[in-house]
Write a structure and sequence with these properties.
Blueprint: H1 3-8, E1 13-18, E2 57-70, H2 78-101, E3 107-111, E4 121-126, H3 130-133, E5 134-135, E6 138-139, H4 144-150, H5 156-160, E7 162-169, E8 178-183, E9 186-193, H6 201-212, H7 236-243, E10 261-264, E11 269-270, E12 277-284, E13 289-295, E14 300-305, E15 310-317, E16 334-343, E17 348-357, E18 362-367, E19 380-383, E20 389-393, E21 397-401, E22 406-411, E23 418-423, E24 429-434, E25 439-444, E26 449-455, E27 460-465, E28 471-476, E29 480-484, E30 489-494, H8 502-505, E31 509-512, E32 518-523, E33 527-532, E34 537-543, E35 548-553, E36 559-564, E37 568-573, E38 580-585, E39 590-595, E40 601-606, E41 610-615, E42 621-626, E43 631-636, E44 642-647, E45 651-656, H9 658-661, E46 681-684, E47 701-704, E48 709-712, E49 717-718, H10 719-724, E50 726-732, E51 749-752, E52 757-766, E53 769-776, E54 784-790, E55 803-810, E56 816-817, E57 829-835, E58 839-846, E59 852-861, E60 864-870, E61 883-891, E62 894-902
Parallel strand pairs: 2-3, 2-4, 2-7, 7-9, 11-17, 49-55
Antiparallel strand pairs: 1-4, 5-6, 8-9, 10-12, 12-15, 13-14, 13-16, 16-17, 18-45, 19-20, 20-21, 21-22, 23-24, 24-25, 25-26, 27-28, 28-29, 29-30, 31-32, 32-33, 33-34, 35-36, 36-37, 37-38, 39-40, 40-41, 41-42, 43-44, 44-45, 46-47, 48-50, 50-53, 51-54, 52-53, 54-55, 56-57, 57-60, 58-59, 58-61, 61-62
Helix pairs in contact: 2-6
């Protein structure tokens, strides 16, 4: 039981199936929380005429089930139930009539009925007053135990394979009506109302459309998925979608299949002044394709019918948003394009590609390590104090030489996502932490080697060198620890900023003042604390309204900037220890705040894909530098007029800031994007410092080196990851380029070395960069090597022997539980594990308090590599909150537990 259980869990209730109920609907202008309806009482549609149940082709056994809920202080209303039943029949008839209009027969959904064939409405009597459940339009009081008890007559399988419509009868203005799809198996509709006379079948049909998986379609205001005056039509796009839906065709299976591969072939940036852009996609699947739908984030833009297992789709996009009033590309700086692909078995997969205008201030882009399809990571960035090195970190740590814009080293140093890095003042040493590591890793930036590991008893979230380089501060889950860099030992701990709970005491952010006299730290509970480093005492606390996600000192140390999750930026007078002296509103959620080297400006970046430049004195916007995707971090070069920003999807952007900072434009080499820089392949041994807090039992650190063709991945490839699917980048040296038509050349790329490896396809991302998608359906008995061969005719102006490159693959030979991927994640992740022999297996998700969140696996499984999927939902189907969770594997006598993080 999922979303239904969520609603019923809000109440201590009694559930009983009835053919009656009472309610009152929301005003029409509150539907789905979007633009208001443009009608009062539309004329009845022909579909409103009753059709006999025998005349309808309903998709049994998938069923729409209806619940009517009244709080304890609301009276039952039979007239509401009567209206609900009428609306169910009208909505059912509407879909049947419209599907027939579009040539699919009178297919429609099935609703639950009683013995007389009447619509069945389940009555839920709340045991508490309305104020307990609904306060200021917000549902209150979630209690999972009550839900499980009350819904004991319904199994999870029954819930999974049905759609639930939940009518709530309220006395006050109600929240918006919403509908959403859980999967092709089922969905939910929330329909709060205050007057049963306002209930309308069009509203129900619209939200059921969302529960089926239909999006808004404003191309014609008569479409049921629009907000127009008639709402009496189903678009051809929607009808074709439903023709392959299990609720409209009982022959459609409920089992899921692996998703198709969706890649973009056209550029994502367009020239300034463009009025339209052409977008081209490549879609490949293991089953027959049915339809592709293109959306601009809100509206359906276009769609195409598909057939076969491979398709190339081309369409034009002009930036028109029917629902918002945007009329052209320049109206917004970034355009999210959502691609939905549906196959003939009713499976739907979506992918987002963001497009934006080329900025005259953008110097070039660098591409981080390639990621598997569907994986979204946010690499962060930082310039070294001497400006010679740029570090980007996410899944791994990458060092870039700024003078040549080439990668010089890649460190796979942590088991999980890299949480924080800091350069020593001379730029020769880099400290890093992993999200779940209880350790700090130190690297020699010049020699590209690991030199020490500092251990702590708790997870380390943040690390920062002091300006004199003698002290290293680490923010932990319970305190701030100070380390002596020379001896690599702990020297002191500082009291947490709040002290009320473990959550209050987490140190998520750390920043030294430029002179090293003050250390600032922030906890998740909106508290900034300042410590005097001479006396090591807390001297000031600055309260914030929301969670603090960014912290930065001005170059002279007089101002401290804090960025809040809600988008506000506050400026604090540090020397005068005063409260807020200024601020600004970024508009989107903040991810990074930094000052320019001359302190005249500060920059904010956020999830809206925009980088704002602000005047420090006036807090007025000076410029907006738009990126396409959400921005993870920004950093200024201390020696040139360069700013770097990183976006979701692993791209780094270098910006010319000389227009605002003064001086000469930066001097950088011409590059096609940095992604074509070949990388080194060699493993460097790890050296361990002689320290009681030091340990060398972690995995080796990998760096990669040059040849005519090199193969690279975003992580070390294991058997389990290979079975999930891996994206491999093949880089040509600067002497060669791939043929522009390589994607249509048969056997342009072949893979050998491991039987059972399948090449799903390849895509030419630039002149010298090719991404190859591969998977694996066999089993490895020992470690092996994959060899990638590029045919001579796939390389432009070349007639020599084929090029080849190799990737090692590590076999899983013992019981093992590997880190989930991606991690952190939102909303889904995969957990891989290896069984040495056939075993009874349980794989369970736990919350921090030890409560079971979800049983993913409870079965007898064969030996070999396995993978479990988690959609980030509880056993009741509700999305779980952001935070740390544990997953435990038990296989026979073997037990292993790991941590993972949901970030929303």
């Amino acid at each position: 039981m999922k979303s239904l259980v969520f609603h019923l869990a809000l109440i201590g209730f009694v559930l009983s199936p009835l053919t009656t109920a009472h309610a009152s609907p929301p005003p029409l202008d509150r539907r789905h929380g979007s633009a208001p309806f443009e009608h009062d009482h539309p004329h009845p549609h022909p579909a409103a005429k009753q059709l006999a149940a025998a005349d309808l082709d309903a998709g049994e056994p998938r069923t729409v089930r209806t619940i009517y809920f009244t709080p304890k202080d609301r009276s039952y209303n039979s007239q509401a139930v009567t209206q609900i039943k009428k609306d169910l029949r009208k909505a059912q008839a509407f879909f049947a009539e419209q599907m027939q209009v579009h040539g699919y027969g009178n297919k429609t959904f099935r609703f639950e009925t009683d013995a007389q064939g009447e619509p069945l409405v389940h009555r839920v009597d709340g045991q508490r007053p309305e104020s307990y459940y609904f306060l200021n339009g917000v549902l209150q009081g979630f209690h999972a135990e009550e839900v499980e008890k009350a819904m004991s007559d319904l199994s999870e399988d029954i819930y999974d394979e049905n759609i639930y419509v939940f009518y709530s009868d309220l006395s006050v203005e109600s929240p918006n009506v919403t509908g959403y799809r859980r999967s092709k198996r089922g969905g939910d509709v929330d329909y709060p109302f205050t007057n049963y006379r306002d209930l309308e079948w069009q509203t129900l049909a619209h939200e059921l459309g969302h529960a089926f998986g239909l999006g808004h379609d404003f191309r014609d205001r008569a479409y049921i998925m629009s907000y127009g005056p008639g709402l009496n039509q189903l678009s051809a796009c929607s009808a074709q979608f439903l023709s392959a839906h299990p609720y409209f065709d009982s022959a459609i299976p409920l089992e899921d299949v692996s998703p198709p591969r969706i890649s973009i072939l056209s550029p994502t940036r367009y020239p300034p002044g463009s009025s339209t852009i052409s977008i081209q996609l490549k879609i490949s699947h293991s089953v027959e394709l049915h339809q592709v739908i293109v959306k601009n984030g809100i509206d359906v833009v276009t769609w195409q019918e598909l057939d076969g297992k491979d398709a190339t789709v081309t369409f034009d996009y002009d930036g028109f948003f029917a629902s918002t009033g945007f009329r052209s590309l320049p109206d917004v700086v970034a355009h999210p394009i959502f691609i939905e692909v549906i196959d003939t078995k009713g499976n739907m997969t979506s992918r987002e590609f963001r497009h934006g205008e080329k900025s005259p201030h953008l110097i070039t882009t660098l591409q981080e390590e390639p990621l598997p399809p569907g994986v979204h990571l946010w690499p962060k960035v930082l310039f070294s104090p001497d400006g010679k090195t740029l570090v980007s970190f996410g899944e791994q740590i990458t060092l870039w030489d700024v003078a040549t814009l080439t990668r010089t080293a890649i460190f796979y140093a942590h088991d999980y996502w890299v949480g924080s890095v800091s350069f020593s003042p001379d730029g020769k040493t880099l400290a890093s932490t992993g999200i779940y590591d209880k350790a700090i890793k130190l690297f020699d930036v010049v020699a590209h080697r690991h030199i020490a590991t500092l251990r702590h008893s708790n997870t380390i979230l943040k690390v920062s060198f002091s300006p004199d380089g003698k002290t290293l501060a680490s923010g932990n889950t319970d305190e701030i620890t100070l380390w002596d860099v020379a001896t690599r030992t702990k020297t002191a701990t500082l009291d947490p900023p709040a002290g009320h709970s473990a959550w209050d005491n987490r140190i998520d952010l750390l920043s030294f003042s430029p002179d090293g006299s003050i250390l600032a730290a922030a906890s998740p509970t909106s508290t900034i604390a300042l410590w005097d480093m001479a006396t090591r005492t807390r001297i000031k606390r600055f309260p914030n309204e929301h969670q603090i996600v960014a912290l930065s000192f001005s170059p002279d140390g007089s101002i401290l900037a804090s960025g809040q999750a809600g988008g506000d930026v506050y400026l604090w007078d540090v020397k005068g220890q005063k409260q807020q002296i200024g601020g600004c509103d970024h508009a989107g959620e903040i991810s990074s705040v930094v000052f320019s080297p001359n302190q005249d400006f500060f920059v904010t970046a956020g999830t809206d894909g925009e980088v704002f430049l602000w005047d420090t004195d006036t807090q007025e916007t000076v410029a907006i530098l738009a990126q396409i995707s959400p921005v993870a971090a920004v950093s200024f070069s201390p020696t040139q007029n360069i700013m770097v920003s990183s976006e979701e999807g692993s791209q780094l952007f270098l910006w010319d800031m000389s227009e605002w900072l003064g001086g000469s434009p930066p001097t950088l080499p011409k590059t096609s994007g940095g992604a074509d820089n070949p990388v080194i392949v060699q493993t460097l041994s790890e050296q361990t410092a002689d320290s009681s807090d030091d340990s060398s039992d972690d995995s080796s650190v990998n760096v990669r080196a040059t040849s005519d063709l090199t193969a690279d991945t975003a992580y070390e490839v294991t058997e389990a990851k290979l079975k999930h699917g891996v994206g491999v980048a093949l880089y040509l040296s600067s002497t060669y380029e791939y043929e522009p038509s390589i994607e249509s050349i048969p056997e342009a790329v072949t893979v050998s070395g491991i039987p059972g490896v399948t090449v799903f396809g390849w895509g030419r991302l630039s002149d010298r960069r090719l991404i190859v998608d591969i998977g694996f359906s066999g089993d490895l008995d020992s470690d092996a090597v994959l060899t990638f061969t590029v045919a001579a005719d796939a390389i432009a102006d070349y007639d020599g022997p084929p090029f080849s490159a190799q990737i090692p693959v590590t076999a899983s030979q013992e019981n093992a539980l590997t880190p989930n991927f991606p991690n952190p994640f939102n909303p889904e992740t995969y957990i891989s594990y290896q069984l040495a022999e056939p075993s009874e297996v349980t794989l369970t998700i736990y919350a921090l308090n030890g409560q079971v969140v979800r049983h993913l696996v409870q079965a007898h499984q064969a030996a070999g590599a396995h993978e479990a999927y988690w959609d980030g939902r509880s056993a009741f189907g509700q999305p779980v909150a952001s935070g740390v969770y544990f997953y435990r594997l038990t296989a026979g006598d073997f037990t292993a537990t790991r941590k993972m993080l949901i970030q929303k």
